[in-house]
Amino acid sequence: MRINKIKLPVSQRKPNLVPRIVFVCTKNQFRSPLAAEMLKHELATRNMPGEWIVDSAGSWVADLAPATPEALIEAEKRGLDLSAHTSKGIEGIHREQIDLFLVMEQGQKESILLNFPKLSKRTYLLSELTGLSFSIPDPYVTGESYSEIALEIESLIHNNVEKIIALAYGIAHP
Fold it and tell me: 19-168: what fold?
């Protein structure tokens, strides 16, 4: 398993505490890898203290598939790079070591909680950060605009970084 680590400038490092966050979508080729890169960028630009592990996975995956061309385009628009991304399934990651799972769809959340009930206090819809509960659709399935979905994910992450951090540290709930 490949986990992406980012090191950030440290002003108040908490010893032995490296939050691990995983974004989950269906195939791990558009929404979740894009969300992971967006969060890494937000953490870096906001100069968040400490080291973070941010990754992505899929609930129904053909392992080692690349990011979609649309994901590469949306990433590039934002100065991000998904060219080295390869998909992986949630079953292939060390779930017990993850502090926070942020999923795109209600069905993904339900599936995770059904198969891994111990993750119930660490699994949320990305939209739940706003106080609402809605799925972020898969543009491959729905035909919705890839750009609009990317913008929605970007907005949810940008406006809720502090909540994501608090959830990863286990000090808040949406």
Answer: Rossmann fold (3.40.50)
Give the domain ranges of the chain: 19-168
Q: State the pairing for strand pair 5-7/20-25.
A: unpaired
Q: What is the pLDDT along the chain (174 residues), one digit of tens a residue?
A: 233 444 433 333 344 478 999 999 999 999 999 999 999 999 999 887 678 999 999 999 877 899 999 999 999 999 999 999 999 998 877 787 899 999 999 999 999 999 889 999 999 999 999 999 999 999 999 999 999 999 999 999 999 999 999 999 887 666
